[in-house]
Amino acid sequence: MRDRYAVVGNPVAHSKSPEIHTLFARQTAEAIEYTRILAPLDGFEDTVRRFAREGGRGLNVTVPFKFDAFRLATERTPRAETAGAVNTLRFDGNQILGDNTDGAGLVADITRNLGIGLADARILMLGAGGAAYGVMLPLLDQKPAVLHIANRTPEKAASLADAFARYGRTSSSGYDTLEGRYDVIINATSAGLQDTMPDVPATVFGQGSLALDMVYADKPTAFMQFAAGQGARVRDGFGMLVEQAAESFSVWRGVRPETAPVFAHFGR
Ligand code: ATR
Q: Are residues 90 and 108 in the same domain?
Protein backbone atom coordinates (compact mmCIF):
# COMPACT_ATOMS: atom_id res chain seq x y z
CA MET A 1 0.00 0.00 0.00
CA ARG A 2 1.33 3.39 -1.00
CA ASP A 3 0.61 6.50 1.08
CA ARG A 4 -1.73 8.88 -0.72
CA TYR A 5 -1.11 12.54 -1.48
CA ALA A 6 -2.68 14.98 -3.92
CA VAL A 7 -2.86 18.56 -5.08
CA VAL A 8 -6.24 20.21 -4.60
CA GLY A 9 -7.31 23.32 -6.48
CA ASN A 10 -9.77 24.80 -8.95
CA PRO A 11 -8.70 24.67 -11.69
CA VAL A 12 -6.12 21.93 -11.17
CA ALA A 13 -5.94 20.03 -14.45
CA HIS A 14 -2.80 21.92 -15.57
CA SER A 15 -0.88 21.17 -12.35
CA LYS A 16 2.56 19.63 -12.79
CA SER A 17 2.71 18.59 -9.12
CA PRO A 18 1.72 14.93 -9.69
CA GLU A 19 4.54 14.48 -12.20
CA ILE A 20 7.06 16.25 -9.95
CA HIS A 21 6.15 14.29 -6.82
CA THR A 22 6.14 11.00 -8.70
CA LEU A 23 9.71 11.73 -9.78
CA PHE A 24 10.65 12.58 -6.19
CA ALA A 25 9.08 9.34 -4.94
CA ARG A 26 10.98 7.26 -7.45
CA GLN A 27 14.26 8.99 -6.62
CA THR A 28 13.91 8.60 -2.84
CA ALA A 29 12.19 5.17 -2.99
CA GLU A 30 9.31 6.53 -0.90
CA ALA A 31 6.11 4.51 -1.42
CA ILE A 32 3.64 7.26 -2.27
CA GLU A 33 1.00 7.95 -4.90
CA TYR A 34 0.11 11.51 -5.84
CA THR A 35 -2.97 12.63 -7.77
CA ARG A 36 -5.00 15.77 -8.62
CA ILE A 37 -8.28 16.68 -6.97
CA LEU A 38 -10.63 19.29 -8.38
CA ALA A 39 -12.57 20.75 -5.44
CA PRO A 40 -15.82 22.65 -6.03
CA LEU A 41 -15.36 26.35 -5.25
CA ASP A 42 -17.75 26.00 -2.31
CA GLY A 43 -16.55 22.54 -1.30
CA PHE A 44 -12.91 22.76 -0.28
CA GLU A 45 -13.36 21.69 3.33
CA ASP A 46 -15.57 18.70 2.47
CA THR A 47 -13.09 17.59 -0.16
CA VAL A 48 -10.16 17.77 2.26
CA ARG A 49 -11.96 16.00 5.09
CA ARG A 50 -13.10 13.19 2.79
CA PHE A 51 -9.56 12.70 1.48
CA ALA A 52 -8.19 12.52 5.05
CA ARG A 53 -10.99 10.17 6.18
CA GLU A 54 -10.19 7.83 3.32
CA GLY A 55 -6.58 7.59 4.48
CA GLY A 56 -4.92 10.45 2.57
CA ARG A 57 -1.72 11.61 4.26
CA GLY A 58 -1.20 15.08 2.85
CA LEU A 59 -2.23 17.70 0.30
CA ASN A 60 -0.76 20.51 -1.67
CA VAL A 61 -3.23 23.36 -1.92
CA THR A 62 -3.34 25.76 -4.82
CA VAL A 63 -5.55 28.61 -6.02
CA PRO A 64 -8.01 29.68 -4.77
CA PHE A 65 -7.90 27.65 -1.55
CA LYS A 66 -4.72 28.68 0.30
CA PHE A 67 -6.65 30.85 2.77
CA ASP A 68 -9.26 28.15 3.35
CA ALA A 69 -6.44 25.70 4.01
CA PHE A 70 -5.00 28.14 6.54
CA ARG A 71 -8.31 28.20 8.41
CA LEU A 72 -8.73 24.43 8.26
CA ALA A 73 -5.32 23.64 9.79
CA THR A 74 -5.35 22.79 13.50
CA GLU A 75 -1.60 23.55 13.84
CA ARG A 76 0.52 25.88 11.73
CA THR A 77 4.22 26.37 11.20
CA PRO A 78 5.55 29.90 11.87
CA ARG A 79 6.08 30.49 8.14
CA ALA A 80 2.45 29.54 7.44
CA GLU A 81 1.28 31.70 10.34
CA THR A 82 3.06 34.81 9.03
CA ALA A 83 2.06 34.16 5.42
CA GLY A 84 -1.60 33.82 6.42
CA ALA A 85 -1.87 31.12 3.76
CA VAL A 86 -1.19 27.39 3.57
CA ASN A 87 -0.04 25.39 0.54
CA THR A 88 0.82 22.14 2.36
CA LEU A 89 -1.38 20.08 4.66
CA ARG A 90 -0.26 17.00 6.58
CA PHE A 91 -2.74 14.73 8.37
CA ASP A 92 -1.50 13.22 11.62
CA GLY A 93 -4.42 11.47 13.34
CA ASN A 94 -6.93 14.21 14.16
CA GLN A 95 -4.35 16.92 13.73
CA ILE A 96 -4.04 18.87 10.47
CA LEU A 97 -0.66 20.57 10.12
CA GLY A 98 -0.62 23.60 7.81
CA ASP A 99 2.65 24.77 6.30
CA ASN A 100 3.63 27.18 3.53
CA THR A 101 6.60 26.16 1.39
CA ASP A 102 6.19 28.80 -1.34
CA GLY A 103 8.67 31.28 0.10
CA ALA A 104 11.27 28.63 0.87
CA GLY A 105 10.85 27.40 -2.70
CA LEU A 106 11.37 30.87 -4.12
CA VAL A 107 14.45 31.49 -1.98
CA ALA A 108 15.93 28.08 -2.84
CA ASP A 109 15.45 28.72 -6.55
CA ILE A 110 17.20 32.10 -6.38
CA THR A 111 20.01 31.22 -3.99
CA ARG A 112 20.73 27.56 -4.81
CA ASN A 113 19.68 27.10 -8.42
CA LEU A 114 20.74 30.52 -9.68
CA GLY A 115 23.51 31.07 -7.13
CA ILE A 116 22.34 34.61 -6.36
CA GLY A 117 22.75 35.70 -2.75
CA LEU A 118 19.97 37.79 -1.22
CA ALA A 119 21.87 39.09 1.80
CA ASP A 120 22.21 42.88 1.38
CA ALA A 121 20.38 42.71 -1.96
CA ARG A 122 17.88 45.35 -3.06
CA ILE A 123 14.69 43.40 -3.71
CA LEU A 124 11.62 44.80 -5.44
CA MET A 125 8.35 42.91 -5.14
CA LEU A 126 5.61 43.79 -7.60
CA GLY A 127 2.15 43.03 -6.24
CA ALA A 128 0.65 42.87 -2.77
CA GLY A 129 -1.83 39.99 -2.99
CA GLY A 130 -1.68 36.44 -1.68
CA ALA A 131 1.30 35.44 -3.79
CA ALA A 132 3.38 38.30 -2.35
CA TYR A 133 2.24 37.65 1.22
CA GLY A 134 3.26 34.01 1.03
CA VAL A 135 6.93 34.70 0.33
CA MET A 136 7.66 37.76 2.47
CA LEU A 137 9.08 36.08 5.57
CA PRO A 138 11.55 33.73 3.85
CA LEU A 139 12.78 36.66 1.72
CA LEU A 140 13.30 38.86 4.80
CA ASP A 141 15.05 35.98 6.57
CA GLN A 142 17.78 36.35 3.92
CA LYS A 143 18.51 39.85 5.33
CA PRO A 144 18.18 41.92 2.15
CA ALA A 145 19.23 45.59 2.27
CA VAL A 146 15.62 46.43 1.47
CA LEU A 147 12.46 44.68 0.36
CA HIS A 148 10.40 47.29 -1.43
CA ILE A 149 6.82 46.47 -2.37
CA ALA A 150 5.19 48.27 -5.27
CA ASN A 151 1.57 47.77 -6.21
CA ARG A 152 -1.05 49.25 -8.54
CA THR A 153 -3.06 50.01 -5.41
CA PRO A 154 -0.36 51.61 -3.21
CA GLU A 155 -2.42 51.28 -0.01
CA LYS A 156 -2.19 47.49 -0.26
CA ALA A 157 1.57 47.70 -0.71
CA ALA A 158 1.77 49.89 2.40
CA SER A 159 -0.27 47.41 4.47
CA LEU A 160 1.95 44.56 3.38
CA ALA A 161 5.16 46.49 4.11
CA ASP A 162 3.82 47.46 7.55
CA ALA A 163 2.72 43.92 8.37
CA PHE A 164 6.28 42.65 7.85
CA ALA A 165 8.27 45.67 9.08
CA ARG A 166 9.27 43.85 12.27
CA TYR A 167 11.02 41.12 10.27
CA GLY A 168 13.30 43.34 8.18
CA ARG A 169 13.59 46.56 6.20
CA THR A 170 10.44 46.99 4.12
CA SER A 171 9.11 49.98 2.19
CA SER A 172 6.34 50.57 -0.34
CA SER A 173 5.02 52.72 -3.18
CA GLY A 174 2.95 52.73 -6.32
CA TYR A 175 4.59 51.94 -9.66
CA ASP A 176 4.99 55.46 -11.02
CA THR A 177 7.15 56.69 -8.15
CA LEU A 178 9.62 53.79 -8.24
CA GLU A 179 13.22 54.96 -8.35
CA GLY A 180 16.60 53.35 -8.70
CA ARG A 181 17.80 49.99 -9.83
CA TYR A 182 17.10 46.72 -8.01
CA ASP A 183 19.14 43.51 -7.82
CA VAL A 184 16.13 41.23 -7.79
CA ILE A 185 12.68 42.10 -9.13
CA ILE A 186 9.92 39.60 -8.38
CA ASN A 187 6.60 39.72 -10.19
CA ALA A 188 3.97 38.52 -7.72
CA THR A 189 1.04 40.11 -9.57
CA SER A 190 -1.50 38.19 -11.58
CA ALA A 191 -1.08 40.62 -14.51
CA GLY A 192 0.64 37.91 -16.56
CA LEU A 193 -2.63 36.00 -16.75
CA GLN A 194 -3.91 38.84 -18.97
CA ASP A 195 -0.60 38.81 -20.87
CA THR A 196 0.27 42.21 -19.48
CA MET A 197 2.65 43.48 -16.82
CA PRO A 198 2.76 46.07 -14.05
CA ASP A 199 3.53 49.54 -15.35
CA VAL A 200 7.03 49.90 -13.84
CA PRO A 201 9.83 52.18 -15.05
CA ALA A 202 12.45 50.39 -17.16
CA THR A 203 15.12 51.82 -14.86
CA VAL A 204 14.35 49.33 -12.07
CA PHE A 205 16.05 46.66 -14.22
CA GLY A 206 19.70 46.70 -15.19
CA GLN A 207 22.52 44.51 -16.41
CA GLY A 208 22.92 41.82 -13.80
CA SER A 209 19.46 42.25 -12.26
CA LEU A 210 17.38 39.13 -11.84
CA ALA A 211 13.76 39.45 -12.97
CA LEU A 212 11.69 36.52 -11.71
CA ASP A 213 8.06 35.95 -12.59
CA MET A 214 6.26 33.72 -10.11
CA VAL A 215 4.07 32.30 -12.86
CA TYR A 216 5.29 29.94 -15.53
CA ALA A 217 4.17 29.30 -19.06
CA ASP A 218 5.49 27.79 -22.24
CA LYS A 219 6.69 31.16 -23.45
CA PRO A 220 8.27 34.08 -21.56
CA THR A 221 5.70 36.34 -19.88
CA ALA A 222 5.28 40.01 -20.83
CA PHE A 223 7.23 40.89 -17.67
CA MET A 224 10.12 38.58 -18.61
CA GLN A 225 10.25 39.93 -22.16
CA PHE A 226 10.34 43.52 -20.97
CA ALA A 227 12.99 42.79 -18.33
CA ALA A 228 15.17 40.89 -20.81
CA GLY A 229 14.99 43.92 -23.09
CA GLN A 230 16.55 45.98 -20.29
CA GLY A 231 19.43 43.54 -19.92
CA ALA A 232 18.09 41.62 -16.92
CA ARG A 233 18.53 37.91 -16.39
CA VAL A 234 15.06 36.36 -16.41
CA ARG A 235 13.45 33.37 -14.73
CA ASP A 236 9.90 32.07 -14.62
CA GLY A 237 8.15 30.39 -11.69
CA PHE A 238 8.92 26.82 -12.69
CA GLY A 239 11.99 26.62 -10.46
CA MET A 240 10.01 27.92 -7.51
CA LEU A 241 7.33 25.33 -8.23
CA VAL A 242 9.81 22.45 -8.16
CA GLU A 243 11.56 23.75 -5.03
CA GLN A 244 8.33 24.31 -3.08
CA ALA A 245 7.34 20.76 -4.06
CA ALA A 246 10.63 19.39 -2.70
CA GLU A 247 10.03 21.29 0.52
CA SER A 248 6.49 19.89 0.83
CA PHE A 249 7.79 16.40 0.13
CA SER A 250 10.23 16.75 3.01
CA VAL A 251 7.46 18.01 5.33
CA TRP A 252 5.55 14.79 4.56
CA ARG A 253 8.35 12.25 4.26
CA GLY A 254 11.27 13.69 6.23
CA VAL A 255 13.59 13.50 3.23
CA ARG A 256 14.32 16.35 0.81
CA PRO A 257 14.66 15.10 -2.76
CA GLU A 258 17.24 16.36 -5.25
CA THR A 259 15.62 18.79 -7.66
CA ALA A 260 18.22 18.77 -10.46
CA PRO A 261 16.92 15.49 -11.99
CA VAL A 262 13.42 16.99 -12.12
CA PHE A 263 14.66 20.05 -14.00
CA ALA A 264 16.45 17.73 -16.39
CA HIS A 265 13.29 15.67 -16.87
CA PHE A 266 11.37 18.79 -17.91
CA GLY A 267 14.20 19.95 -20.15
CA ARG A 268 14.98 22.96 -17.93
P1 ATR B 1 -2.81 36.55 -5.67
O2 ATR B 1 -3.37 35.91 -4.47
O3 ATR B 1 -2.59 35.62 -6.82
O4 ATR B 1 -1.61 37.39 -5.41
P5 ATR B 1 -4.64 38.78 -5.58
O6 ATR B 1 -4.68 38.76 -4.13
O7 ATR B 1 -5.89 38.98 -6.35
O8 ATR B 1 -4.00 37.48 -6.20
O9 ATR B 1 -3.57 39.89 -6.02
C10 ATR B 1 -3.29 40.10 -7.34
C11 ATR B 1 -2.14 41.10 -7.44
O12 ATR B 1 -1.90 41.34 -8.83
C13 ATR B 1 -2.45 42.45 -6.82
O14 ATR B 1 -1.23 43.00 -6.35
C15 ATR B 1 -2.99 43.23 -8.01
O16 ATR B 1 -2.86 44.63 -7.88
P17 ATR B 1 -4.00 45.48 -7.07
O18 ATR B 1 -3.80 45.18 -5.62
O19 ATR B 1 -3.73 46.89 -7.41
O20 ATR B 1 -5.31 44.95 -7.59
C21 ATR B 1 -2.08 42.73 -9.09
N22 ATR B 1 -2.60 42.87 -10.46
C23 ATR B 1 -3.53 42.12 -11.07
N24 ATR B 1 -3.71 42.50 -12.35
C25 ATR B 1 -2.84 43.52 -12.57
C26 ATR B 1 -2.54 44.33 -13.70
N27 ATR B 1 -3.15 44.17 -14.88
N28 ATR B 1 -1.57 45.27 -13.56
C29 ATR B 1 -0.94 45.43 -12.38
N30 ATR B 1 -1.19 44.69 -11.28
C31 ATR B 1 -2.13 43.75 -11.37
A: no
Residues 113 and 128 in one domain: yes
Where in 88-140 does DSSP place strands (E)? Answer: 88-92, 95-99, 122-126
pLDDT at 192 over 90: no
Is the minimum distance from the CB of 151 to ligand 1 under 6 angstroms?
Answer: yes
> Looking at the whole model, is its pTM more than 0.90?
yes
Distance CA(174)–CA(152), nearest Å, equals: 6
Which CATH number covers residue 77? 3.40.50.10860
Q: Are residues 27 and 50 in the same domain?
A: yes
- Asked if the model's pLDDT at residue 217 lies above 90, the reply is no
User: Quick one: pLDDT at residue 194?
Assistant: 85
Q: Could you tell me if 204 and 123 lie in one domain?
A: yes
The CA distance from 197 to 222, in Å, is 6
In terms of domains, do 44 and 145 share one?
Answer: no
Q: Are residues 120 and 218 in the same domain?
A: yes
For residue 143, indicate whether it is catalytic: no
Whether 96 and 149 share a structural domain: no
pLDDT of residue 46: 98
Residue 51: CB atoms within 10 A of its CB come to 22
Catalytic residue among 16, 66, 143, 156: 66
Taking residue 191's Cβ as centre, other Cβ atoms within 10 Å add up to 20
How does residue 195 score in pLDDT terms, banded at 50, 70 and 90? confident
Mean pLDDT of 108-118: 98
Cβ of 189 closer than 6 Å to ligand 1, yes or no, is yes
Domain boundaries, position 58: 3-100+240-265
